[in-house]
Write a structure and sequence with these properties.
Length: 362
Amino acid sequence: MPAEPLARSTPPLRERTVALLLQGALWLLMAAFFWFWYKRPNFYIAGNLWPLVGLYMGFAIVLFNSLVYWVIPRWLLRGRWLLALLGGWLLVVGYRFWFYYGAKLVLAYLPLGPELRRILPQIGGPAPWPVLTQPLQLVGTFVDLLTTMLFPFLVSFLAYALIVDRRRLALERSHFRLELSYLKAQLNPQFLFNTLGHLQGLTRARDPRAGDVVLHLADLLRYTLYETDAERVPLARELEFTDDYFALERLRHAPATITHTVRGAAEPLRIAPLLLHPFLEQLFADLPPASGPVTITSAVDLTASGLTLRVLRQSLQPLPPYAATPAIRAAERRLQLQYPGRHVLRLEESPTHLHLTLQLEL
């Protein structure tokens, strides 16, 4: 069967690049906020405001990155209270130093209008050294910081919450992929080893059916080794794999009556690879080659949006357990992970009777 062309996809942006782009958008928004704040009707400052906006923006960037990447995650949430208090104290003291010396530099080196020259000394405030020694000055500076930097302060906490949520989702996705890989690894080798063991038995007995087994096995190996790494595969290809598998089992269990039918059109439906296989393979697990009067009937009914798998196994003698086996539990777990709320599994089992119905919305 010709291989499908690989879909071209745009490589995702790196996490650091995304963070820088988001910060850039945030600073543009914050610069606009400070600009319009000092251009509001009841407190209008004429002339060029960018030196003042730059002064606020500079400390807003320091405050944001200090809280989001250091004080909150590395000290506060890890119970390092002394370091967190020290970080908060440094931010309060740094705030006073920043505006005091920043205002002096702006007044000394940049062309300003008369209104801004009058306001900047008030914004810079008194000399910052008393903040280091006087608790009341420290409290007053902290209140001033909250009042002046309330918007970036709140944005810092909201941004940190978003970062934590993104990391949590990334960890959940990583855990999801690892669990799926583990479940698939449980299924494939077991099936392949069983088939190879059966082929060895036919070869030793010089059974002419060994050639047919090799042909079916080649197609099964091609599918399991080269086509099941994708998240979804064409349903038609999955059903071809199922047909080859039943052909092999008919050779292994010649006395048993084994039928498998497919009704409906598989195109253009797609399915998670090897999702149905464990439910079918377990029908034959631990079943002796000379299994006697065992009847196994499998039917797949296809619709425009999904499928229904019906399996019936009957025997006059007690059969190996089915529902409680690790393979079936792993298959049920895959259904829960990959098709949550989109499948219904019904299973009735007795020592001589098994009836399974799986309704799956694709």
